[in-house]
Amino acid sequence: MADGPVLARLHFGREDAERDVTEGLLLRGGFLPNAAYRAALSGRKMLIIGRKGSGKSAICMQLSADGGQHAGTVLVTPDETAGEEIRRFELQGLPGDSAKSLIWRYLFAVHAARHLVTHAKEAHRRKPDSVKALARFLKQNGESAGGRLGDRLAQGARGLQTSLSLEAFGVKAGVDLASAPSEGAQAARQLEVVEQGVAKAFTDLGCAGEHGPLLLMVDQLEQVWSAESDSNSMVIGLLLAAKHAVSLYGGAVRFLLFLRADIYDSLSFGEGDKFRGDELRITWTEQALRDLALARARASVGAEMTAELLWGELFPAVVEGEETASYLFRRCLPRPRDAIQFLNLCQETASLIHGRERITEGDVLQAGRQFSDWKLKDLALEYLVAHPFLKHLFPLFQNTGYVVTRAALGSRFDAAAESLHRLFPAYADALTLSGIVDVLYAVGFLGVRRGNDVVFAGDDDLPVQAHETEFHVHPCFRTALGATSAIDLRHFAGGAFDMDLPRVVQGTFQGADVTGLTTPTRDHRLVQELRRSCHSILAQTGRAVDLAQDAQDEISRQINRVLDEANNVPLNARSTFDLEDRLLVTAHYFDTLAAQLLASGLDDTAGAGDVVRRIEEEARRLRRQAGGSYGSSGNSSGS
User: How far is CA 81 from CA 87, 121, 231, in A?
Assistant: First the structure.
């Protein structure tokens, strides 16, 4: 396998399933059958729920292509015109949800009728009278031809609000429906006539078992949804209509509704509990994303592609000390669209920008910076309708540590609250500390620490609890925010030494007097005290079991910088290095470190109280050893 041509051909597909189908990658093996697909294919679930980019449309496209198990497939994707017709559809005497369920039921009945008329013509010698009646109904109401969905919905809405032509079923609307007590009741009676006609035709043909059911799918409702009540009624009406149609048509029609998780979770209606058994939420594990990446690599390059070749030759084996696939998938939200974008960006950075035959660690890091910027902007756009204030919360996390406590976030939010309330007065009730924590967790921006784990939305259905106080920015967004360290701690600024001079190494002085015996000097003792302080803080940090591991690592990293300098202090008569001054500088740094930890909210409630106290104690001890307070030498001021 030649590296150059392989990397040039390597492609993980498009971000949207429609183009993946058009270009053929999805159908050549780039689709990974998952639990949601299998449940949809078998008919066990009717509601497929997932975040944007989680693969809902890919399942929809694949089912459309897999026509063998169904007598026919109908895909409904409302555009803005169709959505507007449904949103504004009203019937006197019916609440909004119920009225909108009638227009959806009418749409389903018309699609089923069209299918039955076409299917009977193509697959049956004898056409039953019930099917002939459907053909006449479609013609009399202008539904037999194609046309834009919005125009057909407008026509159907007018028919339900006034009168449909029902003569094909032996009903004269003007006479038989005149006694209806309201506009809503009349529309319901007309619709029942149509639906009974469709149900009778299914029964008369009796071919659902032989040919499979009609598959009727609704996708991309997010294109016509807003956070307004009429949009929620549109979605609730869809759910009610599908539930009704399933019971009416039995196994002759199978329904699949693909809904974005944030839309579905925002709904509140009395019959919501009846849909729990119909729900299936799309979830993606790291292993599933690895499998998807390999399937798409094989679809673009060839079956000879293996996981070893993909992650060991085309990609580097490790990035920043972490296995590459794990590094990549931890830094994107767990959904195919993000994974595909990140993988393609790595390939393009190496192949197109740098002209390489393999992807290097540097290419992955460069792509990661671009990807993080993309995803931060994309997150704000994804939730622009439901949470228009979202991007204005991101500055609360810029250029600081990615571990943030509730107390620290509260201080930052208090400083910004007035401005946020002025910009978004309609969302003032949501723009509280607990409100923004809930939103940021729900959209996947923040994770919450539970025990020794950090949990993000999707990993756990439990929302953030009032007693939970420690949050982590998702790795996907850290680079874009400049929040690449667990805590925003100042780095210790060590001195520059002549590396040819004798050193203190692991507590022993590399130098002896003329007698051959080691003679500890005052400088040697001061260095030992400095090292002792570092080890004491490191030990206390290691014992802080309630402190987040990332925070422990960051504290240890900074203290080890001090320790590294202590191990390289020159102890030689020729040295002009002032150890007393260095101890005072270090004591001042320890005080700063303790203050920064407290300012970050890392106190007793976050498991850092003993660490902070130990750092402050060691700062005081170093001052005593040096015999003064920081600034006495004139090199600095303040203590």
Answer: 10, 32, 13
